[in-house]
Specification:
By secondary structure, this protein is of the alpha/beta class. It starts with 11 loop residues before the first helix and ends with a helix.
Length: 893
């Protein structure tokens, strides 16, 4: 990349792929496990191998990349481990859908051929998400890319399973689990997503067997009544004291079932009588165990009614519900049906409604592991940021249940357990055995089930670094420095990594956990295809460039608050990228062939120089503090404010006379400071805007290599000059006041006006006089008169303002036609009055207020408020013009 002048515009499409290839070829992302530098490490939350980059990925990986690039600039040896998750259920579903298009199922292929087909799919399509992460600029060490099903990680999974089994922390047992009829597999409790849905509450008569009356029960799932084995009431409910111990006849099945008493029953829900179906409800199962009730499974693993459902056997569960309700009504058992909002569990992968049922599965005994995971956060070995997520973390771990880790699918880590056909014992081993570990029989078969995907990803921080071998990577980079993740997998993944890391590495897997929020649309709505409000990061990068997207996400990444994103905001920060480019171009045009000093003079002279150097040191402090504490939005906003509004809008404008002037000493000082501040700002911006900063770095004088190898600017406290900042604040205030007056008075930007400053003290007077040229140039003045208050007279035909005690006046008699201006303002006022009247009429219309969507009504209210404020401002301005016109007429008279 050659030094030289920049093209007029920044064409990111030509730059990004070239820059990324340069980084990869230069080995900029490669971590040296033998380095003597302090270590900083992150493991990527592995995206599903089926994944496509979405805004959640874009935010998560942008924040990780910011931290990694920042730490490299700070002199750390940085390892960012990339990789993908095999995503058992999701990937199997993708391949099964492909087979279905050919009229085939996995059973037609058989297990071995089907798994081969999945591997083929993975090799062809599984790298898409990695390519997209590279497109985002992720500076991962791709030489260390891992996959949860690769050879090393698969061995780690086996070793962990066997050790936990031998320690009694993994067992096989029959328990109630959540079952997905679509995926045909068990799910862990946290893999079930509860959703509030409108449903119905069916009130059904259960006649007492002795003919003395009836009980009415209420249920949202009448099809499960076919498996009822009791009706439960509260032992202190006076309505049912006489019926406890009696039997009722189960409608449609003609089966006698007992009435039992238990304090679990909620007397306020429904009728206070609860149907008990131990085979299809977790709480009912517990009641069944407590009261020694039979367990009848009437819904099968495929969602179809079993033989135990009697005449309803073979029906789909929802078709069965319709038939049961019809038959209850025909038999006089249906009392009434109420609308009812209730929480329904769905499979987190395919979104099907799950069925609780009893099943023989493999479980991890989690309570002993959870205790250590909580202790590590309590004693500060791991910090969760923002702190508010600690409460959720503790609450889940305190109430943790054993983790069902077996899945009835074919894609995944097959459980290393073998069953003996002769003695019935189980052999659990790391290496495939050829005979039973108990009796020595060769008649053994391996468990068909695979492990939950989250089991292998729970080992990710240490398995990716070569565990169980004691590798240099583990020695150098474990525990990792920080985990950046979304709150939605705090339990799925973070807590499980804590448990496994502490158990097998005897240390936490990460020192910090930074939990970011969701990316929503501009109205705060969750993005979804059904709503049509999804913003695709790949499309945004195509349209506005990667740096603009990354900066937008970072600027809105406030701790504990969702990111509200819109295309307009991304487009807005695209202008910031252009500003950086254009400012650099301006500087380069003015330093070509110049002698840039290695060191800025101890006393650079001009107030503008002292001010920008002081402000720069403050910004370095702000940026470091923000990034060290994960305040990403503050990092972005500090640099945005400094670069655009201080360096560009003020400093570069102030030093133009030096850059264009004939004083060689003044010129070289201005050129040196302009270049050095720009160079260091690019370094600080690099973590969030890697592409444009690298491209510009290559063009600046005095730079070599990649910006990734630069040094993050240290804070030079000697340069912090509060006096210079206060003085410049006053000078900028004077200029800003004159500019505001010009705008309010509708004075043409090309018109040169005269201004007067009346100062309260000699110090202020001297300061304004010393910077007179700057005020005249930047405020576009013909001339500036400076005097002490009391010594200079206040001009009559002038608009004024007060800045820190300094009275500022702009003379209007030669530049403003008061008659025309008053007419123009009246025209504007009339237009605004009409617009406000229309809006107010709409807001006073009850029909509009009740029928229009809330956001539409709110927008109209905001519009009315905005119009009202503008109208009031215009009226005040017109009144001021009328007063000036009156004064002008008096002067003429």
């Amino acid at each position: 990349m050659n030094k030289g002048q920049l093209p007029k515009a920044y064409e990111f499409r030509d730059v990004e792929a070239r820059i990324y290839a340069f980084w990869e070829e230069s080995g900029c992302f490669r971590a040296d496990e033998n380095s003597k530098k302090p270590a900083f490490s992150i493991v990527i939350p592995p995206p599903n191998v089926t994944g496509q980059l979405h805004m959640g990925h874009a935010l998560n990986n942008t924040l990780q990349d910011i931290l990694c690039r920042y730490k490299r600039l700070k002199g750390f040896e940085v390892l960012w481990v990339p990789g993908t998750d095999h995503a058992g259920i999701a990937t199997q579903n993708v391949v099964e859908r492909q087979l279905a298009q050919q009229g085939l199922s996995r059973y037609d292929l058989g297990r071995e051929k089907f798994v081969e087909k999945v591997w083929e799919w993975k090799e062809e399509y599984g790298g898409y998400i990695i390519k997209q992460l590279k497109r985002l600029g992720a500076s991962c060490d791709w030489s260390r890319e891992r996959f949860t099903m690769d050879e090393g990680l698969s061995r780690a999974v086996r070793i962990v399973f066997v050790k936990l089994y031998e320690e009694g922390l993994i067992y096989r047992g029959t328990r109630m689990i959540n079952w997905c009829p679509r995926c045909r597999t068990a799910l862990a409790n946290i893999e079930v997503e509860g959703e509030e849905l409108p449903g119905r509450l069916y009130h059904i008569r259960y006649p007492l067997a002795d003919g003395s009356g009836e009980l009415v029960v209420a249920t949202t799932r009448p099809e499960t009544m076919l498996g009822d084995t009791a009706v439960a009431v509260h032992p202190e409910d006076p309505r049912y004291l006489e019926v406890v111990g009696k039997d009722v006849i189960l409608p449609l099945m003609d089966r006698r079932i007992p009435v039992i008493a238990d304090t679990y029953v909620d007397r306020e829900f429904g009728t206070g009588a609860l149907k008990v179906t131990p085979g299809h409800d977790f709480n009912d199962f517990d009641l069944g165990v407590k009261h020694n009730l039979a367990l009848i499974q009437v819904i099968g693993e495929d969602g179809v009614m079993t033989e135990a459902a009697g005449p309803y056997a073979g029906l789909d569960r929802y078709e069965c519900r319709k038939r049961v309700v019809a038959d209850l009504e025909a038999g006089g058992y249906l009392v009434k049906i109420d609308d009812h909002l209730h929480r329904v569990g769905h499979c987190y992968r395919c979104k099907s409604v799950v069925e609780p049922m009893q099943s023989l599965q493999w479980f991890v005994r989690t309570q002993p592991l959870a205790e250590k995971a909580m202790e590590a956060v309590r004693d500060g070995r791991t910090r969760i940021v923002p702190e508010k997520w600690e409460k959720d973390y503790f609450q889940w771990l305190e109430n943790i249940e054993d983790w069902c880790v077996s899945r009835q699918i074919w894609w995944g880590h097959r459980i290393p357990a073998w069953y003996c056909a002769d003695c019935g014992e189980v052999t659990v081993a790391v290496e495939d055995p050829d005979r039973c570990g108990s009796c020595g029989s060769p008649h053994i078969t391996q468990e068909e089930d695979v492990l939950d995907t989250w089991f292998s990803s729970a080992l990710w921080p240490f398995s990716t670094m070569g565990w169980p071998e004691k590798t240099p990577e583990l020695t150098k980079f474990y525990p990792t420095s920080v985990l950046v993740t979304g709150f939605d997998i705090l339990f799925f993944w973070v807590a499980r990594m804590m448990m496994m890391g502490l158990h097998f590495m005897k240390d936490v897997p990460f020192r910090d956990v930074y939990v970011h929020a969701l990316v929503r649309d501009a109205q705060g709505q969750k993005m979804s295809k059904s709503k049509g409000n999804v913003i695709d990061p790949l499309i945004m990068m195509d349209q506005y460039g990667t740096d603009a997207l990354r900066f937008t996400l970072t600027a809105f990444a406030v701790q504990g608050r969702d990111v509200k994103l819109s295309e307009e905001r991304i487009e807005g920060y695209r202008h910031f990228v252009n500003k950086i480019w254009n400012a650099t171009r301006l500087v380069l045009m003015n330093v070509e062939g110049a002698r840039i000093l290695d060191e800025i003079p101890e006393d650079p002279g001009r107030l503008a120089h002292r001010w920008i150097l002081s402000r720069f040191q403050k910004v370095v402090q702000e940026v470091e503090e923000a990034l060290e504490n994960y305040h990403f939005n503050q990092y972005a906003q500090s640099l945005y404010q400094f670069f655009w509004h201080e360096y560009c809008d003020w400093y570069l404008e102030m030093i133009k006379p030096d850059l264009y002037g004939d004083d060689p000493q003044a010129k070289v000082v201005a050129q040196t400071i302009a270049v050095q501040v720009l160079r260091n700002v690019l370094v600080m911006l690099h973590p969030v805007m890697p592409f444009v900063t690298e491209e510009l770095w290559q063009k600046l004088p005095g730079t070599e290599g990649s910006i990734m190898q630069a040094e993050f600017p240290p804070v030079d406290k000697y340069r912090i000059d509060s006096g210079a900042e206060a003085d410049m604040e006053l000078v900028m205030g004077v200029i800003g006041s004159i500019r505001n007056i010009r705008g309010e008075m509708n004075i043409s930007p090309a018109a040169r006006v005269n201004a007067v400053c009346l100062c309260a003290t000699e110090t202020e007077k001297g300061l304004v006089e010393a910077n007179e040229r700057t005020v005249v140039d930047l405020a576009r003045l013909e001339g500036l008169s400076v005097a002490l208050q009391g010594q200079g007279s206040k001009p009559r035909l002038a608009a004024g303002a007060v800045v820190s005690g300094v009275e500022v006046y702009v003379l209007l008699d030669d530049v403003l036609d008061f008659e025309s201006e008053a007419a123009r303002l009246q025209k504007e006022i009339t237009k605004l009055e009409k617009e406000l009247s229309i809006t107010n009429r709409k807001l006073s219309n009850e029909d509009f207020l009740t029928r229009a969507p809330a956001q539409v009504v709110e927008k109209e209210r905001e519009k009315a408020e905005r119009l009202g404020e503008k109208l009031e401002k215009m009226r005040r301005h017109r009144q001021r013009i009328e007063e000036l016109r009156h004064d002008a007429a008096g002067s003429a008279g």
